[in-house]
């Protein structure tokens, strides 16, 4: 591990330490690390508009307890990592979405998922990791696919959670789910954002497992930590301007486990199946009743599946 980095105890989780990592490309990522330095590393890559705290503490602790060192971080444009200021043209997301669904190329976003995968590759170098297991959720799973195809020497094994390769003609998200995620809250104050988060989780979360109280507390914590809606839109544009990862998937030679929830209505299970089919020898696991989130109920099953995959 790079000894030049200054660590302090995370204000959110006693078993994680936090630091800022300068990637040398004008971007700093905010990182948390937990577990023994001698244990194999799992690098967690989060999804669209999601701060690293969306990796539940219970999940991180569970991986650490099973003998892994765990690293989570805020992607560029979110949380406590660098924000990307842009004066580029205003893009029409709806036009981009329809082209994206048909597999047509889009251009003009301030950055795309290839740039975000380069951030992760630089992070792996800056942290002095030889090779690491990667586990990406949703958009983080897309970044993981690019990372594994472009930088195979940095990646040991791959875990993918409720993600897609965005190949043409996959079923689109249900409108209610998509628009709750990218829609505008009724107000920009703390209460408005908490209400908005509750609505999002009601729509994309696992039916019957969304804890109202816990969701409110999480939303408040995330709002107080960082609120940057421009970053969410820019990450969404990054996905739309990256397009299909199908050809990249065919280059991936690493052992891959793809996990998806049967009740995911943002990215339907057929998205995860498409990824598993495209990557040579990838395994696919469907979790009954799970949506596009990680409620405590499913964490023992999730951490068990991924640790078994990374150890096997």
TrEMBL record:
Taxonomic lineage: Bacteria, Pseudomonadati, Pseudomonadota, Gammaproteobacteria, Moraxellales
Chain ranges passing through the membrane: none
BP term (GO), one: glycerolipid catabolic process
Signal peptide bounds: none
Protein name (record): Alpha/beta hydrolase
Pfam family, one: Abhydrolase_1
Domain AB hydrolase-1 as annotated: residue spans: 40-293
Keywords: Hydrolase
Molecular-function GO terms, alphabetical: triacylglycerol lipase activity
């Amino acid at each position: 591990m790079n000894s030049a980095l200054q660590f302090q105890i995370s204000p959110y989780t006693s078993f994680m330490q936090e630091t800022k990592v300068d990637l040398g490309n004008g971007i700093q990522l905010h990182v948390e690390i937990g577990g023994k330095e001698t244990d194999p590393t799992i690098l967690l890559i989060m999804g669209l508009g999601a701060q690293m705290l969306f990796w539940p503490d219970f999940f991180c602790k569970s991986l650490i307890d099973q003998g892994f060192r765990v690293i989570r971080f805020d992607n560029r444009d979110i949380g406590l990592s660098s924000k990307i200021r842009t004066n580029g043209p205003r893009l029409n997301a709806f036009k981009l979405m329809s082209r994206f669904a048909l597999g047509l190329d889009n251009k003009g976003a301030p950055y795309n998922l290839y740039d975000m995968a380069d951030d992760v590759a630089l992070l792996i170098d800056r942290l002095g990791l030889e090779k690491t297991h990667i586990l990406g959720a949703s958009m983080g799973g897309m970044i993981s696919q690019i990372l594994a195809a472009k930088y195979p020497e940095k990646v040991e094994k791959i875990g993918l959670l409720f993600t897609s390769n965005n190949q043409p003609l996959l079923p689109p998200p249900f409108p209610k789910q998509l628009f709750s995620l990218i829609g505008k809250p009724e107000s920009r104050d703390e209460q408005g954002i908490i209400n908005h988060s509750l609505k999002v989780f009601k729509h994309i979360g696992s039916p019957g497992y969304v804890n109202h109280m816990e969701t409110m507390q999480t939303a408040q914590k995330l709002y107080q930590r960082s609120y940057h809606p421009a970053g969410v839109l820019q990450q969404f544009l990054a996905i739309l301007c990256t397009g299909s990862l199908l050809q990249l998937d065919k280059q991936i030679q690493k052992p891959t486990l793809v996990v998806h929830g049967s009740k995911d209505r943002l990215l339907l299970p057929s998205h995860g199946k498409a990824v598993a089919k495209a990557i040579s020898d990838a395994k696919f696991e469907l979790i009954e009743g799970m949506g596009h989130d990680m409620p405590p109920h499913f964490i023992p099953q999730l951490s068990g599946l991924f640790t078994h995959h990374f150890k096997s």
